[in-house]
Each structure stands twice: as C-alpha cells, then as structure tokens.
Write a structure and sequence with these properties.
The complex is a heterodimer.
Chain A: H1 2-5, H2 22-30, H3 35-61, H4 73-77, H5 87-97, H6 106-123, H7 130-148, H8 165-190, H9 195-210, H10 213-227, H11 236-262, H12 265-273, H13 278-293, H14 295-308, H15 320-327, H16 337-368
Helix pairs in contact in A: 5-15, 6-7, 8-9, 8-11, 9-11, 10-11, 11-13, 11-14, 12-13, 14-16, 15-16
Chain B: H1 20-53, H2 84-117, H3 122-136, H4 140-152, E1 168-170, E2 173-176, H5 183-213, H6 220-237, E3 248-250, E4 253-255, E5 258-260, H7 262-288, H8 292-300, H9 305-335, H10 347-358, H11 361-390
Antiparallel strand pairs in B: 1-2, 2-5, 3-4
Helix pairs in contact in B: 2-3, 2-7, 2-10, 3-7, 4-7, 5-6, 7-9, 8-9, 9-11, 10-11
The chains are: A mainly alpha, B mainly alpha.
C-alpha cells in the first residue's frame, strides 16, 4: 500500500525548500520522492517502453498502409509482425455506411455531419433556448429526408439498406430524444402521491433495470411480432429503436428522480403558493432546477447509452459494430480483424471521450459556482 | 381523526369525503391504470391469436423434452440427451461462474487502479487515468469481440505460450495447474469454512466483551486454531492428498489441469477490465471523500499507516463506495449476457438456442428475465444489507 500512503494531498513530513533546477525538482517530487517510488517509476518506464516499442514496430514500422484493391497479399506477408492498415481504406465505406447504395453515400455522410453539428450546438449553454428545440426538430426531419429520400429528386432507400455510423447515431439520438421525456414522466410518476401511478412507475423502472438489454432486444426482435395484430408489421430497426427508448427511459428516470429530490421543498411550496397547476409547477419551477442538478450524471448516462446501442449486433441490425464485424468476413481480409476493431473503437472513443470531457467541464463549472 | 374532534363530520355526498384534489387524483389514476390495462389486454389478445394461428402451444411443458444441444463448457455434468430444464440450469451455472469470479477479480483490479490514480507517482497515476479513460469509452461488446479475436489468434496447442511453467496459453484457452477436488478434499474445506464461521462468532463475542470492560482481547489465537490448525489436523488425519495436477500436452490437446475455454476466458477478461475501470473511479472518489483532517488527526495521534487506513479511512470511504459498487456488480452480471455474441453458453445463449429450436419465444425470454431479476434482487438485497451495516449511525 505504498501508493496510498504518499497521496499527493497528504501532509508531507517536511517540505523541501524550493531550490534547484525546476525540471529536477519536478522529477523528484513526482517520480522519485522515495526509494520505493523510484523503483516503481523505473519498472513502469521499462514496461511502458517495451509496450510502446512493440506497438510502434507492429502498428507503424512494419505496417502495411496501402494495398491494391482486393489484394491482401502484402498484408499476409507481414502477418504477425505488422499491422494491416490497408484494410481500412479498402473497407471504410462499408464500415461507415453499410450497404447503403454506393453512389448515394454522400447522404448518410451528410446526415452524420448534421448529427455532429447538432450535438455540438447543444453543448453551448448560451444556445439553451426554445429555438434549439426547433432546430433539433428541423435537423432530424432533414436527416430523415436525406436517409430515406423519395422526395426532392432523391432516390428512395429502404431502411434495411441503412447501416454503419448513421444507424448508431440514429439509435442513440432518437433513443435519447424519446427516452428523455419518458424518463421525466416516469420520474414524476415515481414521486407522485397517487399510489397506482407510483407503483406502475416503480414496476416499470425495476423491471427494465433488472434485466439485461440483450433480453429486451430479443423481446423486440422475436416477441414484438407476436404482440401485434396479424398483418401489422414494423421494421426491425424501429422495433430495436422502441426497445432502446424503453431502456433509456428507465435509466434516465432514475437520474432525473435524483434531481427532483435535490430541489428544496420551499420551491414546491412557493409554486403552490403562486397557485400554479401541477404541470405548470413542474415545467416552470421544479424541472429546470432538477435537470440542472443532474446534468453531469445525465451526460454519463448518455455515454453509457451510446455504447450500449452496439448491442443491436446481437439481433442483426447493421450498426457501426455490426458493419465492422461483417467487413472482416471477407475471406481475403479475414485475418485482419484487430485492425478493424481498433479503427471502430477509435470512432466510439472520440464520441464518448468528447462527451465525458464535456461532463467533466460542466462539473467543474457547477463546482466553481 | 379522533372521536372527540370538535368539528362537525363532513357532509356525505356522492363521492364521500373527496375534495376536488382527490377527485383529480382519482381521475388520473383511473386514466393511467386504464391505459396500462388496455395496452396489456391488446398485446395479450394479439399474442394469443398469433400463437394459435402459428400452432404454437404455450406453457413450460417443453422444458421436459430432450434438449439435444451441445454445451461445450460447463461446470455441471451435461449431455445433449438431458432435458431443456437441465440445459437451463447448466446455463445459469455458467452465468454465475462468470459473474461471481468476474466480480471478485474486477473488485481487486479496480481497487488497485483506483488507488494507483491517487498515487504520488505521476507516471503511475497517469497510466491509471489512461486505462480508465480508454476502457470506459469503448463499448463492452467491441472489447469482448476484440479479446475473442485475440484468443483465436493465439498459437495452436503444440506451440502454446508458456509464460510460467505449467501455464499454457493457446487457442484452446488458458490451461492452469489445478488441485483435483474430490470428497476427501471437500471435507477439509468444509471444516475450514465451519472454523471460519466459528471464529467470526467468537470474535464478535470478544468485541462485545471489550465494549463492556475496555480490555482488549486478542482474536488471532482463535483464527490460527480454527481456520489453520483444525483443517490441517483433519487433512493429516484423513491422509488427504493435495498434489497439484500439472497439465501436459498429449497429441493435439492438453491433459489434466484446469482449462478456461477461449470463450469463457475472453468474456472474463472483457468483463473484468471494463468493470474495473468503473470501480477504479468509485474507489478513487470514495477515498477522496474522506476529509483531509481525518488523515491529519490520525497521524497526529501517531497511529501506524496500516492501522489508520484500516480503522479510520476505509470505513468512511466504504460508505461512499458501497452503493455505486452495487450497481457495478449488477451491471457486470447483466453484461455477462453478451456471452451470446461469442458463443459462450450462458443462460441467455442457451435460451436463445432453445428459442430457435422450439419456437417458444415467450417462455424462453421470460426465463431469461426471471433469472436476471432474481440475481439482481439477490445482489441488491445483500449489498443493501451490507450498506445498512456500514452506514453512518447518526443520532
């Protein structure tokens, strides 16, 4: 337990006077403060160096970056010694957009750009106004037009040809856009004084949170057709989307409930004293405060949820992870799945890391206030 | 209302004592419950019609039929001739095998990483931070597929890696030396478990005694006697052998030892590393939540570091740590259902195969849900009990 006994914020027995070369001083306080610490640093450096060197050898020095189309012989020659990044230029269109018609792939690409612009604008606090909601509705409508087509001279592309990154973004965005109001309703229901509404909300949250998402997706893909009147058939993607909305609603409800609990009683009483109705009280007074309290955990739920959309692979929906897995079925490139997984992991990482940085920033902001 | 209430009794109208607010409440409840019931009746009647149209009989009778599916890796004895019911039991055992071992390993690894993040050693704390960031921001299913691909890319059994003598890593999985446990060994282990239980009772009594008169009474002699000496004596008396079985390569496969199949091993690695990143953050915030003054006060009293950590810091940190840790344990257990993606036969995978073989979708999926609800409730029950035990006793 040496690591814990010299935690940085613990009082030091004696502070050394601040003299000498600043670099040496930094090294001494941060890497070589004691003999065991020095040994630890050296061991870690050795391990790190070995790891970095072998990664550079595999990933850069011995790697094959480009290869002629459909020809993986150069990659096979360095198999085991170097990475085959050539598979990425070969397959990236399929990984990003799945089986969407090749010539029309600018449409999903533009949709992805629109999604990212929307997310980016939504993080600006100055823009948190009513207009942002209209912007969202407009942009999502535009994305639907781009993806489906069939109007404005765009050819129609049916949902079963969609794939890759746009599908991941659609599942996540619509899951949140519908799961969020659902979560608010359920959270309010769980705190309601009316016993029937309260117990229904508790039952819903506990049932959904108690089972794995996989089982909900199975339910959507296998049982949903049984639930519907015969002849009524809805698309697999939409069924998965419904399961994801129900799942998100339950998790978001619990986060929002925490926020509702943090709103002081006096606020409810003040709203009552003004004679506001239940819905106006919550819409104007309680919810804005409650949601502000829980923005960081909300963003964390968004991250978890964004990653969890990848589970639709199990019921065979072509999201980003499924297209990646399908891309390496090609016998010529079968052996280079690690490279493809690293590429896709990097895409997921960029989205999630951006969100987690943002949540960290918000936390710092609310702490400083 | 008491009987000597001076006010006149409320006027009894059609709705009794209901005021406008109660009426409104009643209206909303009737509305919501009505909608819920209508939706359920709608779905139910559709389902009944659809099932009869497809000539699928409902009910759990199929559980008695012969399953006929192979299960490659199982703790319990199983053959394809066994019933679906037994296949489910085997699947539940496999789920629990991943979940229990995963929880233990993830807790250990996560605690180590969480403490490393707080280390004064800059390099160590940076590396721990990178570990946490990277693992948390990549979907678990992607990590699972990645590990599984790596497992399959390992050399064949004949060229297996041997990092340490007796341990083999190949595309057959991880093979470890093991001590075969039969009934004589179980007797000894049982004695040790009984000894541990007795020791805990005795220690409790000793602490109660100390509370009364303040005299410290050492508990360690009882520990040595009951947990070490007694089982050793039983082992010697019964001449139980504890020889280690070393795995050996014969022909194309390994003989002896303990084999962790590639599917199981990949699932375990993915669950443990992924969950440990979350546990590390929980442990870190728990330790940081202990006010600095506690460290200062303890060192001013001249306490030893280990004593300070055990008696002062950890009990306070645990109060912050335990509730979020419970959700992580539940997450790990639920995430073990991703096994279906790489073909490790946990309860979800077996239910899925059953569903495809028999068409009993409703029954198979409700079995999955029932199993996970039971496990979830069990874990949260235990953790809530533990949480209540360690919670701050406020006046």
């Amino acid at each position: 337990m040496t690591a814990i006994t010299d935690m940085p914020d613990l009082p030091r027995a004696a502070r050394r006077p601040q003299i000498g070369n600043p670099v040496l001083r930094w090294l001494r306080t941060n890497l070589f403060s004691s003999i065991p610490n020095g040994i630890l640093t050296v061991v870690l450096l050795a391990v790190l160096a070995k790891g970095v060197i072998s990664f550079v050898q595999w990933g850069i020095a011995n790697a094959v970056w480009f290869a002629p189309a459909n020809d993986s012989s150069a990659c096979k020659a360095v198999r085991g010694l170097g990475a085959c990044w050539a598979i990425i230029p070969e397959k990236y269109r399929f990984i990003l957009f799945g089986t969407y018609p090749f010539d029309e792939q600018w449409r999903p690409a533009l949709s992805v750009v629109l999604f990212i612009a929307l997310f980016f604008l939504s993080t600006r606090r100055a823009l948190w106004r009513r207009e942002l909601a209209y912007l969202w509705i407009g942009a999502l409508a535009l994305i639907s037009v781009l993806m489906w087509g069939g109007v404005f001279g765009l050819s129609f592309v049916s949902q079963d040809r969609w794939g890759g990154l746009p599908v991941t973004l659609i599942l996540a965005t619509f899951g949140l856009a519908f799961g969020f109001p659902l979560g608010i309703l359920v959270a309010l229901g769980r705190r309601s004084k009316l016993p029937a509404i309260r117990s229904l909300s508790v039952l819903y949250v506990e049932l959904i949170r108690g089972v794995p998402l996989v089982s909900l997706l199975f339910m959507a893909s296998v049982m949903f057709p049984l639930f519907m009147p015969s002849g009524f058939n809805i698309d697999k993607l939409l069924r998965a989307q419904i399961a994801i909305i129900l799942f998100a609603g339950a998790y978001l409800a619990e986060v929002i409930r925490g926020g509702l609990q943090a709103v002081p009683r006096g606020q409810y009483e003040a709203a009552d004293a003004l004679g506001l109705s239940y819905w106006r009280k919550h819409r104007l007074v309680v919810l804005p405060q409650a949601i502000r309290h829980v923005i960081p955990p909300l963003v964390n739920t968004f991250i978890a949820f964004f990653k969890d959309t990848s589970l639709v692979l199990i019921i065979g929906i072509f999201d980003l992870l499924t297209t990646a897995k399908t891309a390496i079925i090609d016998p010529a490139w079968q052996q280079f799945s690690v490279e493809v997984y690293i590429f896709v992991a990097a895409i997921y990482f960029v989205f999630c890391f951006a969100m987690s940085r943002y949540s960290r920033g918000l936390e710092a902001q609310s702490a400083s206030r | 209302m008491t009987s000597d209430d001076p006010r006149p009794p409320p006027r009894r109208s059609f709705f009794g004592a209901l005021g406008p607010n109660e009426l409104k409440g009643l209206f909303w409840q009737v509305l919501v419950v009505g909608i819920a019931v209508a939706v359920i009746v709608f779905l139910w009647s559709n389902t009944v019609t659809n099932l009869s149209a497809r000539r699928i009989t409902t009910g759990f009778a199929f559980l008695g039929r012969e399953a006929g599916m192979p299960i490659a890796d199982s703790l319990l004895a199983y053959s394809p001739r066994d019933s679906y019911l037994w296949a489910f039991v085997v699947g539940i055992a496999n789920t629990l095998r991943v979940a229990v071992i995963g929880i233990v390993l993830a807790t250990i690894l996560g605690t180590l990483i969480g403490i490393s993040r707080l280390s004064a050693n800059w390099l160590l704390s940076r590396l721990a931070a990178v570990y946490v960031e990277v693992l948390r921001d990549i979907p678990l299913l992607l990590q699972l597929l990645f590990w599984y691909v790596l497992m399959q890319a390992l050399p064949a059994a004949r060229a297996a890696w041997r990092p340490v003598d007796g341990i083999f890593l190949s595309n057959r999985g991880l093979i470890l030396p093991a001590i075969p446990v039969g009934s004589p060994q179980l007797w000894v282990l049982g004695t040790a478990a009984l000894g541990l239980a007795a020791f805990l009772l005795i220690r409790r009594w000793l602490i109660a005694q100390q509370m009364r008169d303040g005299k410290p009474r050492p508990a360690w002699p009882f520990a040595v006697g009951l947990i070490l000496a007694l089982p050793t004596a039983v082992s010697v008396a019964l001449r139980v052998s504890w020889t280690i079985e070393w795995p050996q390569l014969r022909g194309f496969n390994f003989v002896g030892g303990l084999t962790l199949a590639p599917e199981y091993f990949a699932l375990l690695i993915a669950l443990v590393t992924y969950t440990s990143a979350f546990i590390a953050e929980i442990v870190r915030s728990g330790i940081q939540s202990v006010p600095r003054g506690q460290w200062d006060a303890a060192s001013a009293l001249g306490l030893r570091r280990s004593f300070m950590l055990r008696q002062i810091i950890l009990p306070q940190a645990l109060r912050v740590i335990v509730p979020p840790m419970t959700s992580q344990y539940l997450n790990l257990t639920k995430n073990s259902s991703l096994a279906v993606a790489i073909g490790y036969q946990d309860v979800v995978s077996i239910a899925n195969t059953t569903l495809n073989q028999t068409g009993q979708a409703i029954e198979a999926i409700s079995l999955i849900m029932a199993v996970f609800l039971t496990i979830s409730l069990g874990i949260s029950f235990f953790m809530n009990w533990y949480n209540a035990r360690i919670a701050l006793a406020e006046r």
